[in-house]
Design a protein that fits this description.
Elements: H1 3-16, E1 20-23, E2 44-47, H2 51-60, E3 65-67, E4 83-85, E5 92-95, E6 101-104, H3 110-119, E7 122-123, H4 135-140, E8 157-164, E9 169-173, H5 180-183, E10 191-199, E11 201-202, E12 205-215, H6 216-227, E13 232-237, E14 243-252, E15 264-265, E16 268-270, E17 294-295, E18 315-322, H7 326-334, H8 337-340, E19 344-352, E20 367-374, H9 378-392, E21 398-399, H10 409-415, H11 419-429, H12 438-443
Parallel strand pairs: 2-4, 3-4
Antiparallel strand pairs: 1-2, 5-6, 6-10, 7-11, 8-9, 8-10, 12-14, 12-16, 12-17, 13-14, 13-19, 15-16, 18-20, 18-21, 19-20
């Protein structure tokens, strides 16, 4: 099903105000994720436009999954039974003491939310590289941006409302200390998110600079200083020629020590034109660089909302390792460059602050994320992932929940101190297993 057909079908259902089933068979197309690497197990898709409709749907189904913006590369959101879309639930409302929070419906994307907040002179603490993803989907998978002091996007959640797998309504806040840290990054295993409330702050401006050809030797010797140079810093490498191809520095204009943007930065040279992370691709779909100031939401992502995200036909993998092991882990991957580079489009390296959300890959440890954007050759990538995971093994890597990995269940369980507590809570919230699928049964609920 192409994007136009998908959105048209959703719109027709929303207009009726009723829970609407429809099938992709009508368009003679198979429902798939955005990059096309995953064909979903069913084309049966219903939609809801209110929390009451969600409750009715949940209580009347034995098995289903929620289908969001379809940006996951693995089967975490897949179903062989039925999907529920919440696209019509588009609430955006400023709430809270001194208007420092925003209530968001599950159908809202960051590309919609950010301009709304800007119109109120407000902002989020961070954004992912793509604004096309839904807030609810990003939160439940612990999707992140970058920055030494910035937690992943789910750390902005102050309250969450969901319909549990048993059809009950759960309204949770940070005060619910025994449940909230599990419910936020819930992996779609506890319930259907119907509303999230996010912390916001006064709006701010960001300048973005790109440097080319940072030697690995300089990265090794100055990694901390490089990461501390901006509000958000990304290193892009193809692991060839012992260099970081591009360093993207996003600096807030209101920082106490503004980034000076020297012509040379630890041996890298300041770019004189806008660049794409994959140097061979056009930069027209990338956010503005060259130090031109702009609103937070038009600089923190790498890509503009109005364009096709990233390279399109690709696969993605990402591993979080403890910040203190950053260079050891990075150099472990560098030693595999002869195997990695031929399959790779680009790697991005970012830092993320620690948090207290049970199933977040940054749970209780400041982290470095090593991200791989692969060519769409799954058989070859699938053979390589265990090799990378073995090399990173001493650093206890935690994979991004929405991307491709082969880490065994036993290792995942060992790397999350609250893993068993999460399983118990998920079993309580969804006692009948309505929300479980092959991914969750393999990676979370395996005995």
């Amino acid at each position: 099903m192409n994007k136009r057909t998908f959105l048209n079908l959703l719109a027709s259902g929303a207009a009726s105000g009723m829970l609407q089933p429809f099938s992709a068979d009508a368009a003679n197309e198979r429902l798939s994720n955005w990059s096309g690497n995953l064909a979903y197990g069913t084309d049966r898709l219903a939609e809801a436009s209110s929390a009451d409709q969600v409750r009715s749907f949940v209580k009347s189904r034995k098995k289903f999954k929620v289908l969001g913006t379809r940006h996951c590369f693995n089967s975490i959101a897949d179903s062989h039974d039925e999907f529920l879309s919440l696209k019509p639930m588009q609430e955006m409302l400023i709430v809270g003491t001194q208007n420092r929070m925003v209530a968001v419906g599950p159908g809202v994307t960051y590309g919609q939310l950010a301009p709304f907040l800007e119109s109120k002179e407000l902002a989020l603490h961070n954004l992912a590289s793509l604004p096309h993803i839904s807030v609810a989907g990003a939160v439940t998978t612990a999707t992140h941006g970058s920055g030494e002091g910035n937690g992943n996007l789910s750390t902005a959640v102050a309250e969450i409302e969901m319909v549990t797998g048993d059809g009950d309504v759960a309204k949770l806040s940070r005060a619910d200390t025994h449940v909230f840290p599990a419910a936020v990054v819930g992996l779609g295993a506890l319930g259907v998110i119907t509303r999230v409330v996010l912390d916001v702050q006064p709006t701010y401006q960001v300048r973005q600079y790109v440097y080319e050809n940072l030697p690995f030797s300089q990265m090794r010797d100055h990694f901390d200083a490089i990461q501390a140079s901006g509000y958000s810093v990304s290193l892009f490498t193809d692991w060839r020629n012992e260099r970081v191809n591009e360093v993207w520095i996003k600096a807030r204009t209101d920082a106490s020590k503004p980034f000076a943007a020297p012509a040379e930065f630890y041996g890298a040279r300041l770019a004189t034109r806008n660049l794409h992370p994959i140097a061979e691709l056009s930069a027209e779909n990338c956010t503005e660089q060259l130090g031109k100031p702009g609103p937070w939401y038009d600089r923190l992502p790498h890509f503009k909302m109005g364009f096709t995200p990233s390279a399109g036909k690709e696969l993605q993998t990402e591993y979080f390792v403890p910040r203190r092991h950053a260079m050891d882990a990075i150099m472990a991957v560098a030693r595999l460059h002869e195997q990695v580079s031929p399959l790779l489009l680009i790697t991005e390296i970012r830092t993320i602050a620690a948090d207290d959300l049970w199933m977040s890959p940054a749970y209780q440890r400041p982290s470095v994320a090593i991200h791989f954007t692969w060519k769409q050759d799954w058989p070859a990538v699938q053979r390589l992932l265990p090799v990378i995971e073995r090399e990173l093994g001493p650093y206890q890597p935690r994979p991004h929940w929405g991307k491709l990995f082969t880490v065994p269940h036993a290792d995942l369980r060992a790397r999350y101190p609250k893993f068993d507590d999460f399983v118990k809570l998920a079993s309580k919230f969804d006692a009948q297993g309505r929300l479980r699928n092959e991914f969750l049964n393999t990676n979370i609920f395996a005995s």
